[in-house]
Amino acid sequence: MTEVVATNETILVVGGGISGLTAALEAAETGKQVVLVEKRPYLGGRVSQLYKYFPKLCFPTCGLEIHQRRAKTNPNLRILTMAEVTDLKGEAGKYTATVKLKPRYVNENCTACGDCAKAVEAEFEDEYNYGLGKRKGAYLPYRMAHPAQYVLDPRILGTEDAERAKAACKYNAIDLDMQEETIEFPCGAVIWATGWRPYDAAKIQPYGYDRFPNVITSVEFERLADPSGPTGGKLVRPSDGKEAKNIAFIQCAGSRDRNHLLHCSRICCMASLKQCTYVADAWGEEADVSLYYIDIRAIDRFEDFYTKVRAIEQVKFIKSKPASIVQDQDGNPVVHGVDTEGYKRYANTHDLVVLAIGMEPSVDKDSFPVDIVLNREGFIEADPSNGGVFAAGSASDALDVNRAVQHATGAALRAIQVVNGAAGVEG
Amino acid sequence: MSNTQMIEKYRTHFLREVEANVEEGEWVKMCMQCGVCSGSCPLGKHWAHPPQEIFMMIRAGKREEVLTSDSMWMCTSCYNCIVRCPRELPITHIMHGLAHYAKRLGLVPENQPTAKFAQLFWDNLMKKGRVNELKLGLSLYFMNGFAEGVKTSLARRKLGMNMVKTGRMNPMEILGGHGVKDLSGFKKAIQKAQELEDARIAKQGA
């Protein structure tokens, strides 16, 4: 049975992505008791799936490593992975949280040696790589996963694979009898950092994401570019493994569209500009990039980055939101539309099309376990009637990492004020 | 109001003129020039100016070019643009609104086939309160003169015969044809609608 020691002065953080992790650490480092609940088997969320950050083009692994180190050494922070908050009752200063823990089938003895993965034969779609690759039925979600413990896919349970994994483990770390648990504990304030998910690209019917293998999303492209990704960082297209040198980026895929997402997702322009540099870096002079856009929203200091990418000769900027994509007989996506600068019709053939997919809140409007004020896009509003529940990061709006982290720090401070109030401390 | 009166009234503010006088014209300013409508139009390559360009021309005050244009008459009401427009502009309706307004001011290009057919349809409908398809078809064939009419009729005669055979067309309709039960009531309704429309236009002109 999982034990959680908590009081009304405990802060519950829901979501262990960059926002939740930041908020949890900021609060824990002021001496508050924090319980961090994460649905995935590891911390880091979507940031762990990025290859580089904009605008500095540095690696997210760097900041994540610092965060993980802080998390490991802080005695005030309790981390629950594969856990979901299913209920939250009470009011600011005295909540009771119900958390459901899924079995990992691997206990703390795990040294992440990987022997179980070698023993297991079954393979499944790799969620970490957005299904672009396969992983074993016993797996470490990604190379820097924290906690550094393997996970057994429940689908291998009852098969020979499960027994093979157990037999292969030298540390007695595999426990096939682990059961789902539901635990309850008190907390004084809640930081809601459930983040975002990519909009379902298949809903943008004319772009054929569900029909054409060489139409992918920007989050998938991020995995393609990553040297530790499914292709080892080679930019090849999914249908036939052909080198993708002629790549199109389509902006506002879902965003700013009343048929899909009402809001501007704010990060996609910068993400695509960043990804243009991946292509230019990979293929040099042979790169041929087309970026289709309505208008480039590289806000404030990002303008410099835009200017920098604009100066790359191999990158063409086409002011137009494409109307449709079709596939030619060689499996190449052909992008159709009309250019706003001159109103010329075009039909451009590319090796690969990347949809700069919009961000939507990862929790559906009706699935919150507690009453909370949402805006029309489904993001959490800062509203006094939310009591001691505070949104952090992209649960509150479409934010980039920088702004999400700032927002999370603010949320930590708000939560600290509530639990201080509960404890009768001033401030 | 005549064309010259409208020019006098709105001068360089063509967008305002469209907003006040064209059906759904108040939506024009909402266009963000993404180009999805133009790219989605199945007849797009036949347009001199696709919808997106028409909206920009309206905002740029290109009154003459827009209203004498052939473009909005090319719309077949397939509604592809409306369903795809990220801002939900009723593009099809705006195109019809512009065509209607151009017609009111007498600016339709001569021999514009869609405009001609629309007039034939209307005249045909007004006689009996319902469309006489046989007469409408024939008047369409003979729209551009007798010789071409005969040629087209001969080319399409198989289609006509098949329609007669399957009971989709009655050759006796050529003799007058049947109308609505209450023709005078129908005419009254149309007259009332015309009065309301005239009053609306007169009010806009005021």
What's this model, at a glance?
The complex is a heterodimer of chains A (427) and B (206). Chain A is an alpha/beta fold and 427 residues long. Chain A is 22% helix and 24% strand.
What is this structure's SSE topology?
The complex is a heterodimer of chains A (427) and B (206).
Chain A: E1 11-14, H1 18-28, E2 34-37, H2 60-73, E3 77-80, E4 83-91, E5 94-101, H3 115-119, E6 123-125, E7 134-136, E8 138-139, E9 151-152, H4 160-168, E10 181-187, E11 189-192, E12 196-198, E13 215-217, H5 218-225, E14 246-253, H6 268-283, E15 288-293, H7 303-310, E16 315-319, E17 324-327, E18 333-338, E19 345-349, E20 352-357, E21 359-361, E22 389-391, H8 401-423
Helix pairs in contact in A: 1-2, 1-8, 5-6
Chain B: H1 3-10, H2 14-21, H3 36-40, H4 51-59, H5 63-67, H6 80-84, H7 91-104, H8 113-128, H9 133-141, H10 146-155, H11 157-165, H12 183-205
Helix pairs in contact in B: 8-9, 9-10
Structure description:
The complex is a heterodimer of chains A (427) and B (206). Helix content of chain A is 22%, strand content 24%. Chain A has eight helices and 22 strands. In chain A, a hairpin with an 8-residue loop joins strand 6 (123-125) and strand 7 (134-136). In chain A, helix 1 packs parallel to helix 8 (401-423). The longest helix of chain A has 23 residues, at 401-423. With 206 residues, chain B is mostly helical. Chain B is globular. In chain B, 59% of the residues lie in helices and 0% in strands. Chain B has two domains: 3-109, Orthogonal Bundle (Fumarate Reductase Iron-sulfur Protein, Chain B, domain 2); 113-179, no CATH class. At the A-B interface, strand 18 of A face helix 3 of B.
